[in-house]
């Protein structure tokens, strides 16, 4: 996931002064916020192509591997892609890049949930082929 060429979906962010820790580099928590930006942008793009009226997307798990520190100021690019598609969930892979170099990778599991029952629900038939194009 550290290969920028493996991503087709990109989100751009900028390091904020508020993202820094006392040592002067980006705090680990901010990495999670950057990955969230990429993941949510991908989910919003899916919502733009298929109706999600009765569904919500919740994150079940995230694992982040920190590869290098990030300094302020900087531009950050988040590459996001689907790596697995299940019945009610999918795994998203992400890479955090500064100047073309990968500084962190993440794997997260998102679950499609019915808004009334708050229970996992199967990925709709009209959404699955759209998601498969992102694998």
Can you walk me through this structure?
This protein is of the alpha+beta class. The protein has a single domain, classed as Thiol Ester Dehydrase, Chain A (Roll). Helices cover 20% and strands 39% of the residues. It contains two helices and five strands; from the N terminus they run E-H-E-E-E-E-H. It has a five-stranded antiparallel β-sheet. It is elongated, with a radius of gyration of 16 Å. Keywords: Hydrolase. Belongs to the 4-hydroxybenzoyl-CoA thioesterase family.
User: Unreliable segments (pLDDT under 50, ≥5 consecutive)?
Assistant: none
User: Separation of termini?
Assistant: 13 Å
> Which of globular, elongated, flat, extended, rod-shaped describes the shape?
elongated
Please write the string of helix (H) and strand (E) elements.
Answer: EHEEEEH
How many β-strands, per DSSP? 5
Q: CATH topology, which one?
A: Thiol Ester Dehydrase, Chain A
Percentage of residues in strands: 35-45%
What's the arrangement of strands in the largest beta sheet?
A: 1-3-4-5-2
> How many separate domains?
1
**Could you tell me the mean pLDDT?**
94
Describe the structure concisely for a colleague:
The chain is α+β, with helices and mostly antiparallel strands. It is built from two helices and five strands, in the order E-H-E-E-E-E-H.
Write the layout of secondary structure elements.
Layout: E1 9-14, H1 28-49, E2 55-66, E3 75-85, E4 89-98, E5 101-114, H2 128-132
Short key terms for the protein model shown above:
135 residues, alpha+beta, Thiol Ester Dehydrase, Chain A, 5-stranded antiparallel β-sheet, 39% strand
């Amino acid at each position: 996931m550290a290969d920028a060429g493996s991503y087709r979906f990109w989100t751009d962010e900028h390091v904020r002064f508020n993202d820094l820790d006392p040592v002067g580099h980006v705090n680990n928590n901010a990495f999670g916020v950057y990955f969230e930006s990429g993941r949510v942008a991908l989910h919003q793009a899916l919502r733009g192509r298929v109706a999600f009226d009765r569904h919500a997307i919740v994150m079940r798990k995230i694992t982040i591997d920190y590869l290098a520190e990030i300094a302020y100021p900087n531009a950050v690019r988040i590459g996001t892609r689907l790596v697995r598609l299940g019945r009610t969930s999918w795994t998203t892979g992400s890479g955090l890049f500064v100047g073309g170099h990968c500084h962190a990778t993440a794997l997260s599991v998102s679950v499609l949930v019915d808004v009334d029952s708050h229970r996992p629900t199967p990925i709709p038939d009209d959404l699955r082929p759209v998601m498969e194009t992102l694998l």
